[in-house]
Write a structure and sequence with these properties.
Layout: E1 5-9, H1 13-24, E2 29-33, H2 39-48, H3 51-54, E3 60-63, E4 74-77, H4 93-110, E5 115-118, H5 123-134, E6 141-143, H6 146-161, E7 168-169, E8 172-173, E9 181-182, E10 188-189, E11 192-193, H7 194-199, H8 205-216, H9 218-226, H10 233-247, E12 252-260, E13 269-278, E14 281-285, H11 292-315
Parallel strand pairs: 1-2, 1-4, 2-3, 4-5, 5-6
Antiparallel strand pairs: 7-10, 8-9, 10-11, 12-13, 13-14
Helix pairs in contact: 1-2, 1-10, 4-5, 5-11, 6-8, 6-10
This protein binds adenosine-5-diphosphoribose.
Adenosine-5-diphosphoribose (APR) is lined by residues 9-15, 34-36, 39, 78-83, 92, 96, 99, 102-103, 119-121, 229-230, 232, 235.
């Protein structure tokens, strides 16, 4: 049986890391696509030459022509520009919306059966635009944000409690921005919810609040340190987890920016919610019950996403 084909649209910092991880994990053969000539070819060759050392046989190829993504099983989109210090994700909207139009058309023509994972920011608006421009079924187009935001939350919690990251589960929902909603009540250490750990004296409410805020600012903290771009290792690892769930029909329960129409009282909006990812793409949206405080935070986040979608429609009337 032929190996799955994974097309990476954008061969920058995240794209290169995605290619490396996909090859090492032998998820399939990799096409690295970019408008920059030489970059995808150079990265593909460099990673391919690590194959004998790492022991993988995945094939890698760089491309500047969309015809090379033909028949891809998975497309992961990072094309666009990242943040610089002082910028919010929303500042990228105008530039990256145009990029989503060309990427969406490329996928529509050459890889209409792919499962598409968008990483380009501002995430919730860009994944919506990509679905509109590509015309692919909504359950086959998702955004990567919740896995990354939850991973950041889990990392900070494991440091706070001095326990293995493997035993920390966490949920971050809502839009991928300042208003994201880390759900303390649904986050646990080996099943023990965080509010119980506060009661048990493992941490204080003040520390918990500070960790929630650090999670919300997790991307900006890294932009401030790197100065020339934004995070790429953890975003790439997070998208690979989602691609693997699809390719191996794992039925993982992962928070993703998915098209929600009915659940959570929403009508036709892309936003971060718990999903089941399997061979059908988003096979189910897990409509968990939020309490009043959580609902208020979620509503605020949803309003921020609606504002970005409205801004996209203002820029490109074909989306209205
Ligand atoms: N088509 C294809 N590739 C494009 C296009 C386009 N129209 N426009 C830009 N690119 C390519 C660039 O040439 C570059 O190689 O996208 C790549 C982006 O790579 P980086 O600048 O290194 O950005 P990266 O850190 O990978 O982040 C990409 O993900 O997390 C988000 O906010 C981040 O929107 C940004 C995206």
């Amino acid at each position: 049986m032929a190996r799955p084909k994974i097309a990476l649209i954008g061969a920058g910092q995240i794209g290169g890391t995605l290619a490396h991880l996909a090859a090492i994990k032998e998820l399939g053969d990799v096409i690295l696509f970019d408008i920059a000539e030489g970059t995808p070819q150079g990265k593909a060759l460099d990673i391919a030459q690590s194959g004998p050392v790492e022991g993988f046989d995945a094939k890698l190829k760089g491309a500047n022509d969309y015809s090379d993504i033909a028949g891809a099983d998975v497309c992961i989109v990072t094309a666009g520009v990242p943040r610089k210090p002082g910028m919010s994700r929303d500042d990228l909207l105008g530039i990256n919306l145009k990029v989503m139009k060309s990427v969406g058309e490329g996928i529509k023509t050459h890889a209409p059966n792919a499962f598409v994972i968008c990483i380009t920011n501002p995430l919730d608006a860009m994944v919506w635009a990509l679905q509109q421009f590509s015309g692919l079924p909504a359950e086959k187009v998702v955004g990567m944000a919740g896995v990354l935001d939850s991973a950041r939350f889990r990392h900070f919690l494991s440091l706070e409690f001095n326990v293995s990251m493997k035993d920390v589960t966490a949920f971050v929902l809502g839009g991928h921005g300042d208003t994201m909603v880390p759900l303390v009540r649904y986050s646990t250490v080996a099943g023990i919810p965080l509010p119980d750990l506060v009661k048990m004296g493992w941490t204080t409410q003040e520390n918990m609040d500070a960790i929630v805020q650090r999670t919300r600012d997790g991307g900006a903290e890294i932009v401030g340190l790197l100065k020339t771009g934004s995070a790429f290792y953890a975003p790439a690892a997070s998208a690979i987890e989602m691609a693997e769930a699809y390719l191996k029909d794992q039925k993982r329960l992962l928070p993703c920016a998915a098209y929600v129409d009915g659940a959570f009282g929403l009508k036709g909006l892309y936003v971060g919610v718990p999903t089941i990812l399997g061979a059908g793409g988003v096979e189910r949206i897990v409509d968990i019950k939020l309490n009043d405080d959580e609902q208020a935070m979620f509503d605020k986040s949803v309003d921020a996403v609606k504002g970005l979608v409205a801004a996209c429609k203002g820029i490109d009337p074909s989306l209205a």
